[in-house]
Amino acid sequence: MNSHLKQLIDLSQVDKEIDAFEPQIEEANAKYEAALAQKGSIDSDIENLGSEIRDEELKKSKNELHLAELSQKLEENSKKSGEIKTEREMKSLQLEEEIAKEQVTFANEEIERLEKIIESKKEQIEAAKESLVELEANLESVKAEVDKKLKVINNDRQEVFVKKEKLLGKINQKGLSFYQKIRRWAKNTTVVPVVDQACMGCHMIISDKIYADVIKAEDITTCPHCGRILHVETTQE
After folding, report:
1. Domains, the chain, ranges and CATH?
2. Do residues 219 and 2 touch, judged by C-beta distance below 8 A?
3. Model confidence over 93-128: pLDDT tens digits?
4. What is the pLDDT of residue 237?
5. Spatial distance between the Cα atoms of 139 and 5, rounded to a whole number of angstroms
6. Alpha-carbon dihedral sign for residues 61, 64, 70, 72
């Protein structure tokens, strides 16, 4: 086999090994990122609940203020009752009192309703904070586990990088440039085997002549259909 072709085949295998580390890193980080996302969600829930509580307390304050105004009005009406001179004035004052009392009842009911909502939301916040404490404690162990996995992956990846550097030091620069040009679009299918006289990159059948050149492996042969570098695997050969 042409030595330059052998170098490109070896380089393609090393590049595949390097690319294979990315999904491993993503998988290792996924658990920690999921825990962080959950923490962010709980933090957001607590913040939203706090904002809702402030809104409900503002509504409660307005009702309490209105209740104080109604109480003052009823007190003033009580004083006015001694000054009534006509039946018409009496009926008008009674109507005002009835409306004010209805409003007092409504305000009290609304305050009670708002207090229950506020209390419920405070309980939700406490439950969320408890979950957050538990999650944060678990987050440390998850981070430690992820860091351990990443350390192993990075050590393995560094070994492959060293292997690639040694290979690049020996490889023909013209061949390397040709390989890198194809790899820009073909990625890990830059160098592919021929199986049953078909390119395993585009799965198109190649001619007998090109197939013979691939088998001889005296030079670098590319697929006439897709341009990938072709070779025959040792078992086939």
Report:
1. 17-171 (1.10.287.1490), 176-231 (no CATH)
2. yes
3. 778 888 888 988 999 999 999 999 999 999 999 999
4. 45
5. 49
6. negative
